[in-house]
Amino acid sequence: MKPLRIALTKGRLEKKTTELFERAGYDCSGLRDKGRRLIIPVGDGIEAVLAKAPDVITYVEHGVCDVGIVGKDTIMESGRNFYEVLDLGFGKCRFALAGPKGLDFYSGYSARRIATKYPHVARTFFDSKCMDVEIVKIEGSVELAPLLGLSDAIVDIVETGATLRENGLQVIEDICGVSARMIVNVASMKLRKTETEKLIKDMERCLAAD
Amino acid sequence: MRRYSRAIPDGARDLLFGECRARRNVEKTLVEIFRSRGFSELATPSLEFYDVFAGNTAAMDDEMMYKLVDAHGRILVLRPDNTTPIARIASTKLKGFVPPLRLCYNQHVFRISRYMSGRYDEVAQCGIELIGASGKKADCDVILTAIKALTGALGGSFRFEIGHVGFYRSIIDSLPFGDAEKEQIRSLIASKSYASLDTLLAPYADKNSACLALMELPRLFGGKEVLSRAEKIAPNDAARETLDYLSGIYDTLCDMGLEGNVMMDLGLVQQIDYYTGVVFRGYTHGYGEPVLSGGRYDGLFANFGVDAPAAGFAVDADAIARSSDAGTSSVRPDVLVYYAKDIGAAYAHASELTEAGYICEMSVSDTLDKAEEYARARGIHRIDITDGGVRTIEL
Q1: Do the Cβ atoms of B120 and B318 come closer than 8 Å?
Q2: For residue A203, what is the nearest residue in chain B, using CA coordinates?
Q3: CA B149 – CA B146 distance, rounded (Å)
Q4: Three-class SS of residue B285?
Q5: DSSP-assigned states of every residue in chain A
Q6: Is the Cβ pair A80, B114 closer than 8 Å?
């Protein structure tokens, strides 16, 4: 039998994910000391790959990875067709609309311009308010856009709000909370029911113990 | 040179040799199975009016349909789905048919997929529709034809899952949720978001058996144990009736020795506005999405002014062809036939060879030397020269 393949998000979620798997009793020595390997064995019958968040979704949607650990922010931006079985509870932050202090965002008739790394999330949010805004996709440090005068406001993930405050910005409105999720390919869930269910149960047990 | 003259559009692809043969084989196998069960094939136009597909229960997002404008300014679409055109035909040209009507098709659908998602926009689909019949016998016939199709095209290596939207519907309809909340709950069940569903329903769950049943719904997939668990949590008679019906079908399939391939999922609520009864899907290893999907959609025909129950399914012939190992080589002839003058004798000899089962190619070279050179380059090991009796050269 092929090992169950799990795609883990590199970076922000990586450490917490490893800790969770360890607490659930999986051998993560390979993850702690991965060297240059791209596919890493984790315990018996499971192997992990580390990928950027949107790639985790791509791998799971196509079924080349059975399971993925990825942030709800990425799921909202680029996710479509998979089972989103668990909220793992870590990597907590929120999507928010933010702008310069003192800006009355909702006043006036001229269309606002929004800079964001998450154009789909921003579009959905403003569609729900029936607001026509101009959305500009920015790849990093979105806070810079209103400071430079490119946009009126930003839609971004906010953890503590410290970066916003330091740059004279403030949250105008919270959009929704996000956290790390476990996702499963639709075919894997059915074709490899025993293995995926065991993994889900192990994680659930760990989360319940917290 | 024009910029795109040597390229093909995103989401399109060429099928060469082995891949093309593999797809044709799958299509042939499936259509033969459908025909052998009394389904008559039909073909519908690739271009249809937008109105056929817009605003009915099968409607897909505007963003997914390729649109064109005809000479009169009317909007056309490249067929995004096969069932809707068949419903159009059944309710117009075949109106007044003696039910049940058994129709099958083998043609492509076109859907715009997300940019760079690695999906194909043109999908070869083979499927059936059983129109004008409902009940257990009709559902079993469609399901058994689907299983037969997967067995024929894939051998035994597939998983077939069955659900019934009636179970979910009888529960949600007994609860005082608004449309937006219902849609949110449905979407969480469809995506098996266990935790989010628990969080959403927890405030209502206290002592409410219907809410508790909803919370368990996404986990209700598997074998026989799913039915016994579902019977325990079914909160009303409508839900219990659905379960009885579904378990009747499941038992029938098990009695026929299909237990190893068949499972149930009561959380199959993906297209709740379209499907009205049993729903099912087929999966195979190596392909991350269903290769077959179908169910009962008794509401579709009402869009075309006819009241007829119907059920059917579509198989993704491309996906099945890809999961089989077809190889990629072109056809290599067994024999190259060369002649200098007597074309009649050459073709008579070639006919004898092909009748005996050889793949036989006529040489178009002007000299025997050139014919030999070609045969070596193509890897053909035998040349038959037909002038004045047949002479064979083995290479």
Answers
A1: yes
A2: B195
A3: 5
A4: coil
A5: -PPEEEEEE-STTHHHHHHHHHHTT---HHHHT-TT-SEEE-SSSEEEEEE-HHHHHHHHHHTSSSEEEEEHHHHHHH--SSEEEEE---S-EEEEEEEETT--TT-SSSPPEEEES-HHHHHHHHHHTT---EEEE-SS-TTHHHHHTS-SEEEEEESSSHHHHHTTEEEEEEEEEE-EEEEE-HHHHHHTHHHHHHHHHHHHHHHHH-
A6: yes
User: Which residues of B, range 286-315, sit inside 8 Å of A by Cβ?
Assistant: 286-290
Regarding predicted confidence, which is higher, B329 or A169?
A: A169
For A191, which residue in chain B has the nearest alpha carbon? B159
Nearest 10 degrees: CA dihedral of B231, B232, B235, B241? 20
pLDDT digits (tens, 9 = 90+) for A97-156: 999 998 888 888 888 999 999 999 999 999 999 999 999 999 989 999 999 999 999 999
Whether this model's ipTM surpasses 0.85 comes out as: no
Best of A67, A84, A197 to disrupt the B interface (most B CBs within 10 Å) is: A84
pLDDT in tens, A164-205: 999 999 999 999 999 999 999 999 999 999 999 999 999 999
Residues in A touching B118 (Cβ below 8 Å): 58, 62
Q: Which domains does chain A show, CATH number per domain?
A: 4-91+179-209 (3.40.190.10), 93-176 (3.40.190.10)
CB-based contact (8 Å) between B192 and chain A? yes
Task: Note whether B263 contacts A: Cβ–Cβ < 8 A.
Answer: yes
Which of A83, A84, A191 comes nearest B285 by C-beta? A191
Closest by Cα among A25, A56, A23, A196 to B219:
A196
Is residue B70 within 8 A of residue B9, CB to CB? The reply is no
* Contacts B63 to A, Cβ<8 Å: none
How do residues B223-248 score in pLDDT, each as one tens digit? 999 999 999 998 899 999 999 999 99
Beta-carbon separation of A83 and B193 below 8 A: yes
Tell whether B156 lies on the interface with A, counting CB pairs under 8 A. Answer: no
* Nearest-angstrom CA–CA distance, A158 and A177: 9
Separation between Cα atoms, residue A49 and residue A87, nearest integer Å: 20
Task: State which residue of chain A sits closest to B115, comparing Cα positions.
Answer: A78
Helix/strand/coil percentages in chain B, nearest 5: 40, 20, 40
Smallest Cβ distance to A190: which of B118, B194, B263? B263
Per-residue pLDDT for B328 more than 80? no
- DSSP-based three-state secondary structure for B67: strand
Instruction: Kindly determine whether residue B288 and residue A62, on different chains, have CB atoms separated by under 8 Å.
Output: yes
| Domain ranges (residues) in chain B | 18-158+284-323, 335-394
Answer yes or no: do B159 and A191 touch at CB < 8 A: yes
Confidence of residue B348 (pLDDT cuts 50, 70, 90): very high
**Percent of all residues in chain B with a pLDDT value above 70, rounded to a whole number:** 97
Tell whether domain B335-394 is in CATH 2.60.40.10. Answer: no
On whether the pTM is more than 0.90, the answer is: no
Write the CATH number of the domain with boundaries B18-158+284-323: 3.30.930.10
Q: Which of B289, B293, B322, B323 to mutate to test the interface with A (most CBs of A within 10 A)?
A: B289
- Tokens read off for A119: 């154009």
